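Sanity check record (used in CI):
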Amino acid sequence: MEALGGDKRWFDRFLAQHIAVAYFFLAALMYTISPRMAYHFSECVERHLPAPAVAVEYYTKGDLYMFDEFQTNQVPNSRRPKVDNLYDVFINIRDDEGEH
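Expected output for Ubiquinol oxidase:
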């Protein structure tokens, strides 16, 4: 957002920071009431948000030779994970870490 000029106005920064704090306390309150509800809420947010550009580039573009060579659980050139939303990014990170 900063690259798009979202940090230029004081009010925008103020609003973003306070919404982040309110979101944290909302999530913490939801977790104390019902962990299942809090996890479901987090999944809904993650499925709604788009994948960051850096994650899309990492998993889909460039020279993927080394990427395939390190994926030893599957046949090379068969693993092209989908990167449609933030939840997919977290799943791909989990799968990558499971390879180690």
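The chain has a mean pLDDT of 81. If this sentence no longer matches the regenerated tokens, the check is flagged for review.
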